[in-house]
Amino acid sequence: MFKTPAQHVGTALIVTGLISLSACGGSGGAEAPSAEVTATVTRSGQASPESSPSASVETAPTYEALTKSKLEAALLTLRDMPVGYSQDADSESGDTDKTFCDYEPPFTEKVAVSRDFTKGGGLSSQFLSVGLRQFGDSDRAGSAFDALVKALDTCKGETFQGTKLVYAVMSAPKVGDDSIGIRITADGTTILQNFAVVGPTLVNVGGGGLMKADADEIAGLLEDQVSAYEDAAR
Questions:
Q1: Cα(165)–Cα(185) distance, rounded to whole angstroms?
Q2: End-to-end CA distance of the chain
Q3: β-strands 157-160, 163-170: how paired?
Q4: Which of 111, 106, 107 is nearest to 134 (CA)?
């Protein structure tokens, strides 16, 4: 969950509070326990074209199902952030099951961890958030990602808690099995959010603020977070 300590900046609070909209768990099927999960070969969920017996078959990477403590250890830390950021205290308040245009995710993650950072204060505040949401297997993570992509085909904006939000898909680094970027704007506040699906896990990095949202900075952090997760789970 992406949070901001700048409680007096109402619009920023609403927009940054929605930074993990699409990653929230839905009321879909329950997850099954798994000691090890395997990434799907094709992101679309379609079967790969038939190959001749002599053709070489690329082996999909395998990922260990991490415990919550190991998943937290795979998150980027303050040392990985740009200069000037400090880490926010953990908080259980403010979480929401709100999704983009209230679409329903097909599955709920088994484990979710996140870490938030703030730079500056007041109207000049900037925010960054990193998160990992691990599903029971790569097929369920892929389905959750595909549901997000499908929702954003038609969901271009909505009003939430009295604030009009505008959504726009943006390009994202080509990492993991697939990725997507989302731009959220409201009353001059801009939040940029990048998602990647990597095996059984959705990786997200978001950030922005009233005065500035650096797409290159957030893209670079997504690449770093995907690499950190892959190193931990393989």
A1: 6
A2: 25
A3: antiparallel
A4: 111
Q: Is 217 helix (H, G, I), strand (E, B) or coil?
A: helix
CA–CA separation, 44 and 86 (whole Å): 39
Ramachandran angles phi, psi of 63, nearest 5°: -130, 135
Our measurement of the distance from residue 129's CA atom to the centroid of its chain's CA atoms, rounded to an integer in Å, reads: 9
pLDDT tens-place string over residues 67-116: 999 999 999 999 999 999 999 997 554 455 788 999 999 999 999 999 99
Alpha-carbon distance of 60 to 40, in angstroms, equals: 7
| Rounded Cα distance, 165 and 192, in Å | 13
Please choose, from the candidates 103, 191, 109, the residue with its C-alpha nearest in 3D space to the C-alpha of residue 151. 103
User: In whole angstroms, how large is the CA radius of gyration of the chain?
Assistant: 18
Cβ atoms of residues 37 and 137 within 8 Å: yes
Q: What is the residue-averaged pLDDT of the chain?
A: 81
What torsion, rounded to 10 degrees, do the Cα atoms 103, 108, 109, 114 define?
50
Q: What is the pTM of this model?
A: 0.80
Q: Which residue has the tokens 């505040």?
A: 125
At residue 135, what is the residue type?
F
